[in-house]
Every structure is written in structure tokens, then in C-alpha cells.
Structure prediction request, 605 residues.
Amino acid sequence: MPMQAQHEGKIGWTVADAVDYKGFPADRSKTGGWIRAAQILGIEVCERLSTMGIAVNLVTYLVGTMHLPSATSANVVTDFMGTSFLLCLLGGFLADAFLGRYMTIAIFALVQTLMKILTERTDTVDEQGTALLAISTKLPQLHPPPCKESQTVPCKQANGFQMGILYLSLYLIALGTGGLKSSVSGFGTDQFDEKDEKEKSQMAYFFNRFVFIISTGTLTAVTVLVYIQDAVGRSTAYGICSASMFIAVLIFLSGTKRFRYKKCQGSPVVHIFQVLVAAARKRNFQFPSSVNLLYENTPEASRIHHTDQFHVLDKAAIVAEGDFEENGSGAPNPWKLCSVTRVEEVKMVVKLLPVWATTIIFWTTYAQMITFSVEQATTMDRSIGRHFEIPAGSLTVFFVGAILISLAIYDRVIMPLWKKWKGTRGFTNLQRIAIGLVLSTIGMAAAAVCEMKRLALAKEVATKTSTLPISVFLLIPQFFMVGAGEAFIYTGQLDFFITQSPKGMKTMSTGLFLTTLSLGFFVSSFLVSVVDKVTGSNDKLGWLADNINDGRLDYFYWLLAVLSFINFVVFLLCALWYKPNKTDNNQKVLQMEGLNNGCSAEEKC
Prediction:
């Protein structure tokens, strides 16, 4: 009897939906909690340090060291960032369907840490992707010879081999970034039990600290790391990234026996394809006389009622001969017959797509903040006092600062006032997205005006000096407006995709949100290529000339401002068309926890 009582007491200390590393129910007193969450967050800090530290200053390296044209350099950066976010989908799919979050983090982290490469003498580099980048910036054979001031012929561009090594290093980093970002925050929330009131409140604090950690990593990257790149050397800065990631991985792996793990539930992407395939197979079928005759096997408490939109998908729920398995189980073949609830889940995802499409252009304008805006800064006076010069890449500190200031003002000022006036907790998710789109449009207009002034001065001084007598702080309005726009649109998008997606597709909806970032960078690359080709034809210097002092970057900014305004109008039409899903109040409360700071229990990045 005492042994049985002891056993029953131990069962009370287990977490119902989590297991330990051996697959047994997780012991609440020995697994999870703040320490384990902190071990996971260390990975995110180092990932953000590496990615942002590379991205914000990469364009200056490509132009100044690799001697690439301005437009080509911008596209290399945006393609790198776009691929990083796009690969989050791969990481999320693997985590949901096969590997689980822990294994996904471990594998993709090890992709970046497997090889220990000696660079020079005592210099060691421990992260595969960043190590190759450190080597490519260190070894003279991996970049073209420097230009001389008296040189009359054009500078020699990097050859195919040199660019190949650079691309290999960048996309190894992108692969690791995508895999890590897909699971880090989700695995962090797995360390807390939502059914326990104490741990549930701790989880809310986890979201606050998660955002703080991300911001800390970004600020460190755009200040300290960028300064080291410019003042000491890029290979040293990238070596620091490598060493920090290596240490973070060791700390993460040391918690293996103390983490809590959730079992894989299958990928919602497969469920969506099952509905599409089943509907396509039955495209010629007639609808039954009543929707009640459509197939439904979901428990009553979890059912989603039939809606009248997208009737073509309803054909996936029409019962036909041969839809059920022949093994005697009585279960339907999911590729031939789907329940009404499963069909309605797909409908909910389809309804998100118009809003999803109209938020991509924001991230196209965002891309200019780490490409052309940084290149603008390299030509301007960045000195503070007599002995300190702000690194061009560190100008993005105003961008990050705008995000933090905007979130603080919204949380502490706007939300309380709005609650007193309207009785609601701040703006709706679609309203926040709209505000973000407006701010980015104004930001691009401000960037165009600033560039007009800079170009006018460049023509006056001609080639007398490489640094124009105009303060770099003139760029602050464009950084601030787009940064404030991100504060609203990021939280609005995340709120929208989390709360308006099916309960079983939260992970996928977060991945859908991340694809807007990815596609925004790719659209930027496409737009830059088209503008460069169209305006630079017939031996004329285009808007995006190799030397931005010879181009008309202001025209490109005006183009983005016009496109952003048109996109905003289209977004308003989509927002008016969209009808919010009716969500159970208790479920919505759980979904909304942590969203004030841009995160959710189901967030994947």
C-alpha cells in the first residue's frame, strides 16, 4: 500500500501531454521550467546575432570588397534573408511530421557546428556556415584584389569560385536559421504546462522575455558586431558568431535529459492536400440535397459548422463507394473522403490568403532598410565628435529602436486609452496591419525625399570627396517609420494568422505568416532586377547604378511608395471582404495570451 500511494503521488507530479527523453510521462519537478527554457533561448540569441550581424552589413562588403554592382549586392542580401525565412517551412514541416522540435533544433544547429575549421594560426572557427564566411572574408584568394585610388580601370569583380564559396557559406547559414527559427519558440513553450496555473502564468512571462531576447540579439548585432566588422575585421566578428553558437549548442544539448517533449501530431499541410485531392477526385459529383448528408466523424465539441463559401471544397465530404478502407476498420481513406470539419479548416486557411498576399509588399520595403539605406549611409557623414564614426550597418539601430518604442507606446498609452474610449483592448489585428502598411508607405516617401537631397549634394561636390558633407541622421525618418510599421504589422499579422486559423493548424499558420517575409525579400530582388534592366538599357546609367551617386535611387523609392499605396487600397478591400471566424471564447483567451508582445504559444519563429 505505501508503495502504491507513492506511485499515485508520483503520477500527480507528471505533465499529462509531455514526456521525458525516455518517452515516459514527464516529471514536473525534474523537467521543464525556466532553466530549460533559458537553455533553448540561448540558441535564438546566437542565431539572431549571426543572421542580423551578417545581413545588415553584408551589402557594404559586397560592394566594397567583392566589387559587385549596387543592384546585385542588394539582391544577394535579400535572397539570403528570403531563403532563411522560406526554409522555416521546411523546418516546421520536419518538426511536425517526423522529427519533433528538439531533434529539429539539434540537427539544424549541428549543421552549423559540425566542422571545426582552422583559419589562421590560432584562429579557430566552429560554425560551418559562419566559418566559411569568416574564411572567405579572411583569405585573400577568396575575394578580388582591392581597388587603388589611382586606378583608372574598373575594379575587378569577384569570380565564380569566390562567389561560390560566399553563396555556400550564406546558404548554410540560411539552412540552419530556417531549421532553428521554426522550432525554438515552440519548444520553449513546451517546457511549461498550460493546465497548471503557476506554469501557465510563467509561460506568459516567457513570451515577454522571448521578444526581449530577440531584440537584445538584434541590437547587439547592429551595434557591437557591426562595429567589430568595420574596426577589427569581418573574420573576427564572424568567428565570434561561430564560437557563441558552438557554446549555445553545448548548453542546449546539456539539457536533453531535463527537457519536456511533445509527440508529433502530423503535418497540417498533408491534411490540406488530402482535402484538395479528395475534392478534385469528386469534382463531377452532384451535391447531396442537404449538407447534413455530408460526411462528419469529428467529435461534437471539436466540430466546425458548415459554411457557404468555397462550395467546390465541400465535394471532399461527399460519401461515395470505395471511400472506406477495406481492412475492416471502417475508417475512411483520407485521400478520398474528408469530414466537414476538415474541409472547413481548409476553407479557413483559404480565407487567410488575400490578407496574406497584401502584406508581402511591406517586407519588400523592409528589405530596403538593410540594403540601399545602408549603402546610402556609407556615402554620408557618420562622425560623432572627432574620433568616432558610426558604422553604416549600425544605422539599423534606429530601426530596432523604433520597433521597441512603438510597442511600448502601444502597450502603455494607446491600449489603455482605446479601452476607455472603445471598450476593447487596442486595435484589431487587421487595423494594426493597416497602420503598418500606411507607415511603410510614408517611410518610402521619406526615403525618396532624403535621397533627393543627398543626390543634389552629390552633384554639387562631384568627385571631390568620397564622403558627402551631409549628416547620416537624415536617414532616421525612413528607418523610424518603417520600424514603427513593423511593430504594428508583425504583431497584427501574427495575431491574425494565429487566431483566425484552425486550432490544429497553428504551426502552419505561423509558417504562412513567415512566408510573407520570405516573399517580400524575393519580390525586392525581382523588382530590383527589373528596374535595373529597364532603366539601365542602351548604355545608360539606370536608377540603380553601380555607384548610387550616379543613379536615381529616389525614383526607386517613389516607385515603392506608389506600390505600397496601391497595395494598401487592395488590403482595405480584402479586409472588408474578410469575415472573422467565430471562435469559442475560452479558446480565444488561450490563443491571445502573449500576443501583446508579438508571440503566441503556438508561434514557430
Remarks:
- Residues 1-11, 115-129, 583-605 have pLDDT under 50 and may be disordered.
